[in-house]
Amino acid sequence: MALNVVSNAGPLMVFSKLNVLHLLKELYGRVEFPFSVYSETVRAGISRGFADAQILNSFLLQNNWKPAREIEMPMDLKAANLDRGEKESIALALSKNALLLMDEERGRNYARQKNLQVRGSLGVLIEAYAKKLISEDQLRLYFQQISERKDIWINPDLCVRLLEEIFGSDPG
């Protein structure tokens, strides 16, 4: 049974910056995303000259992953204090009863209140490690890169804590 998966902008950008978009395909086969997320990650990114936007665009074209355009949005979600991409990603995930990939905490909390299963970029990398798609060394490297990069907004302390949970207190 194929799992429906919807992504917000954050995980797509993180995986583009790390150049590991292939892991999304290997784990989930296909990932859906709303047009607003495409606009934010690809269109705006390319216009600003961001290399990761070009990487993401090439990956999407290569795999024929196109954004969803028509998304029915519940009234309470329209009123939520979230950005457009988060709202549309949650609405799309709700409509498909999908796993939602999202890093932003406020959006994750809202999605959980709607009984959606939510996973962030770090959780996807941990899943890839658990399914032996990446090695322990690769997982540690990706977490280190996420911790050190100024263009990825994931708390470095969270990276340390999750690695400790997985591998014990040995910093490796």
Can you walk through the features of this model?
With 172 residues, this protein is mainly α. The protein has a domain at 5-122: 5'-nuclease (Rossmann fold, 3-Layer(aba) Sandwich), CATH 3.40.50. Helices cover 60% and strands 5% of the residues. It has helices spanning 9-17, 21-28, 35-47, 51-63, 75-78, 84-96, 105-113, 121-130, 136-148, 156-167; strands at 5-7, 99-101, 118-119. Strands 1-2-3 form a three-stranded parallel sheet.
Strand arrangement, major sheet: 1-2-3
How many DSSP E strands? 3
Report the helical percentage. 55-70%
CATH topology-level name of the domain at 5-122? Rossmann fold
Q: How far apart are the termini?
A: 37 Å
Largest sheet, in brief, is: 3 strands, parallel
Question: What characteristic shape results from the CA principal axes?
Answer: globular
Supply Rg: 16 Å
Question: What's the pLDDT, averaged over the residues?
Answer: 95
Strand content: under 5%
Number of discrete helical segments: 10
CATH top level assignment of the domain at 5-122: Alpha Beta
What CATH architecture label of the domain at 5-122 applies? 3-Layer(aba) Sandwich
SSE sequence, one letter per element: EHHHHHHEHEHHH
For this structure, what is the CATH homologous superfamily of the domain at 5-122? 5'-nuclease
Low-confidence stretches: none
SS-based structural class?
mainly alpha
